[in-house]
Amino acid sequence: MCRIQRSLWILGIFLIVVPSIRAVYEDYRLPRSVEPLHYNLRILTHLNSTDQRFEGSAKIDLLARETTKNITLHAAYLKIDENRTSLVSGQEKFGVNRIEVNEVHNFYILHLGRELKKDQIYHLEMHFEAGLNDSQSGYYKSNYTDIVTKEVHHLAVTQFSSTFARQAFPCFDEPSWKATFNITLGYHKKYMGLSGTPVLRCQDHDSLTNYVWCDHDTLLRTSTYLVAFAVHDLENAATEESETSNRVIFRNWMQPKLLGQEMISMEIAPKLLSFYENLFQINFPLSKVDQLTVPTHRFTAMENWGLVTYNEERLPQNQGDYPQKQKDSTAITVAHEYAHQWFGNLVTMKWWNDLWLKEGPSTYFGYLALDALEPELRRGEGFISRDLANFFSKDSNATVPAISKEVKDPAEVLGQFTEYVYEKGSLTIRMLHKLVGEEAFYQGIRSFLGRFSFGNVAQADLWNSLQTAALKNQVLTSDFNLSRAMDSWTLQGGYPLVTLIRNYKTGEVTLNQSRFFQEHGIEKDSSCWWVPLRFVRQNLPHFNQTTPQFWLECPLHTKVLQLPDLPSTDEWVILNPQVTTIFRVNYDEHNWRLIIESLRNDPNSGGIHKLNKAQLLDDLMALAAVRLHKYDKAFDLLEYLNKEQDFLPWQRAIGILNRLGALLNVAETNKFKNYMQKMLLPLYNRFPKLSGIREAQPAIKDIPFAHFAYSQACRYHVADCTNQAKILATTHRTECQLELPSDFQKVAYCSLLDDGGDAEFQEVFGLFQNSTNGSQRRILASALGCVRNFGNFEQFLNYTLKSDEKLLGDCYMLAVKSALNGEHLVSPTGNYIISHAKKLGEKFKKKELTGLLLSLGQNLRSLEEIDRLKAQLEDLKEFEEPLKKAIYQGKMNQKWQKDCSGDFIEAIEKYL
Ligand SMILES: *[C@@H]1O[C@H](CO)[C@@H](O)[C@H](O)[C@H]1NC(C)=O
Ligand SMILES: *[C@@H]1O[C@H](CO)[C@@H](O)[C@H](O)[C@H]1NC(C)=O
Ligand SMILES: *[C@@H]1O[C@H](CO)[C@@H](O)[C@H](O)[C@H]1NC(C)=O
Ligand SMILES: *[C@@H]1O[C@H](CO)[C@@H](O)[C@H](O)[C@H]1NC(C)=O
Ligand SMILES: *[C@@H]1O[C@H](CO)[C@@H](O)[C@H](O)[C@H]1NC(C)=O
Ligand SMILES: *[C@@H]1O[C@H](CO)[C@@H](O)[C@H](O)[C@H]1NC(C)=O
Ligand SMILES: *[C@@H]1O[C@H](CO)[C@@H](O)[C@H](O)[C@H]1NC(C)=O
Ligand SMILES: [Zn+2]
């Protein structure tokens, strides 16, 4: 599953009519006394304008694993007809004495008249019904409006991950209770029914006219959260056969207005499936996949077996119109969902504590897949660099949880689905990959998937598979315990700072580790990690060799080593090639000096890998912020950028500088801007003039870098950037047909507004209001956040806030974000947010509010601002959690300003 859209759990809307005898349970897990083997599921869906509900029955084959007199399963928001519940074994009938319901855990407990016998098979049958809900979980309803007839079409579709199958039928709703499923769907003939497997046969309903019942083929052993079905009248844009060994057939369902648009998911899904099949050397076991684009969806996408669902709102359709970044994010979503077919669907975590075991690999293999399918775009490294940047920044907080952590109730399970688990999970798999090397990694992964196909795993199973493969390939010694080492990365949050001190006389290096906290002065704790050590020396810059030469053990914190390949005193040593493992490094003074000189003076920047270059910048900036170095050293290193040809180090460095620049006071800001201009000028000059970009369009792979260079240069008013951008905007709006990648449109319109007055605002605002194209509106909204006059901006904010249209809500957020990132409107925009907080709280989801407040928090610098924010928002429940984070961020900013900004400015003055 990909990325949470909302984490607020909206409660069901109808009452449950079951006897409720409350009991207190310590245990939130189902008892292990009975095991479901197979479900026969019949669901009749009513979907006309007055009646939207379903009725169903579940016949579950159960194996008694122990003698017991009760059966516990999950059910939520279902009206279960007790009189029709039955339990039989052969000819024997079992009475149900009493039903007990535990609402906290959604347990439905049958207390039986007689004991079930160990190893016997029983058949439990239950009948139930419920309304189709509006909360995008369980079996929910959605709709679309036909653009020609204006008629509303209803549809019903499932979202069972993580704990919502129990809202559609009574079941053993935990990932380890895998079973086979025979699904039969009943519906009016004007609809079509889908589930994970093809339809075998249909027959007329015996009492409802024009209704049919259709049997679907048996679904292979699977967890309940991966089961899916839908009843709809969407259209199939294309049926395609893939090149997988089963010749899997893809169909692509969407509302009619989307037909004819090029869908990224449609194009790459079959290729991805073949790619993974070859990579993992395990065939995709189903015969078809339906891709269903749903008008409303809780997540961006969901990897259900045989019926992958997508959120229509989040899928850029018409390729030409959307910014490259958004296209990439869709491609990566699709790549992620199909990696899940192996990681998650075929091999499933035993429990949600190990959610990362499916999300981490799916994210990482998604990157590899995109690089393999479209190597010219080289997107993988960009994603990895982004994940590293996020990780090193977020994980420096003392409260960050481990990626593998105990979760109990449904809210906690859902709370696991955070970017953090996905990104650190991905970095953890990447670490394993680089640690054991290509050969052993794929052997280990294949044997892991093969051995546990249709089964369940804990993280130790992955470690063991890799350990075995590593041993076979002689990359680890037999006494090395990979589990113990890897557990130190997944069972605790945070990461270490490794300090490397060279003794230039003896050639020895001394290493130690301690947890890195961004907040300096925080008490040292005793956490430690198993840190793989791989050294690279200047004269042999083999950044490709990433298997460890040594380990820094845990709990031993300090280690003295003689390097195998003694570097001379005038060549640098760099630890952790390609930033294979997620730790920061600090070196002794002389080694830093050697690195900086090499980067600045060697023609090839010393052959240092781009991820290491980005990391060296990141590390020195972070070390300066905790006063372990002066900013002087970081700025000394930054000077090398004027010859840096690669995007990643630039992106990392400017990202950090922009954040810190926002915290400076007015006098300091001018110096900072001068510095940024000086730094960005050579970068800007490398790219063609913006006004002529149509003639000199960069290759797709270079667009992100070019867009970055223009937008940063214009932001700091480098050379003629603003004028060039204005010319571009003028030509674009007068020649409406002008084809221009949307990334460049954003720069153009932003500069036009930043440099313009009322007339320019009114014009662009007019374009925004008159545009019917969603992506065009988004671009213009971002640009409108660059306007100088708050009166103008307020006009836009009021306009978008007033509307109920989802798109205008998105536009509001985009504009506010860009205003908060800019320099002119930060404070009035902050005031506007605070004074409209109540309205925002009603309108936006928690995740959006958190993003908004964190953007605001990044700009808070004074105690007064923090206090005011707190006073105004404290009483609004929706803001509780985001507010806490924003206030913390504000306090950190204040601390940085007090302790570090002087040093920062001093360094800037030196390099002006
Ligand atoms: C909707 O379906 C129900 C039966 O499921 C039927 O009684 C009702 O008349 C239908 N309403 C419309 C508007 O078709
Ligand atoms: C169900 O039966 C088992 C014994 O098989 C017992 O330990 C357990 O407490 C019972 N559960 C409930 C909810 O009564
Ligand atoms: C179940 O049966 C009992 C006794 O025959 C009856 O009173 C009750 O109304 C029935 N419940 C339902 C939901 O039909
Ligand atoms: C269509 O779906 C939207 C969003 O879920 C909902 O607000 C609206 O009421 C639905 N329209 C109809 C006619 O059911
Ligand atoms: C499930 O469906 C298959 C195919 O129709 C059938 O052969 C099988 O008997 C069914 N299983 C059960 C338990 O009904
Ligand atoms: C970071 O940690 C502090 C406590 O040390 C906590 O109050 C704060 O909410 C955390 N910030 C984030 C963004 O998680
Ligand atoms: C290092 O890896 C890159 C990319 O995988 C490859 O192009 C290059 O030849 C390798 N260099 C060495 C020395 O193995
Ligand atoms: Zn996922």
UniProtKB/TrEMBL annotation:
Domain Peptidase M1 membrane alanine aminopeptidase: start-end pairs: 265-489
Pfam families per the UniProt record, alphabetical: ERAP1_C, Peptidase_M1, Peptidase_M1_N
EC number: 3.4.11.-
Record's cofactor remark: Binds 1 zinc ion per subunit.
Enzyme class: hydrolase
Active-site feature positions: 337
Compartments where located: Cell membrane
Domain of life: Eukaryota
Cofactor(s) the protein needs: Zn(2+)
Signal peptide: 1-23
Annotated ERAP1-like C-terminal domain residues: 572-886
Membrane topology: Lipid-anchor; GPI-anchor
Binding site for Zn(2+): 336, 340, 359
Family annotation (SUPFAM superfamilies): Leukotriene A4 hydrolase N-terminal domain (SSF63737), Metalloproteases ('zincins'), catalytic domain (SSF55486)
Family membership: Belongs to the peptidase M1 family.
Listed PANTHER family: AMINOPEPTIDASE-RELATED, PROTEASE M1 ZINC METALLOPROTEASE
Protein name: Aminopeptidase
Species annotation: Drosophila sechellia (Fruit fly)
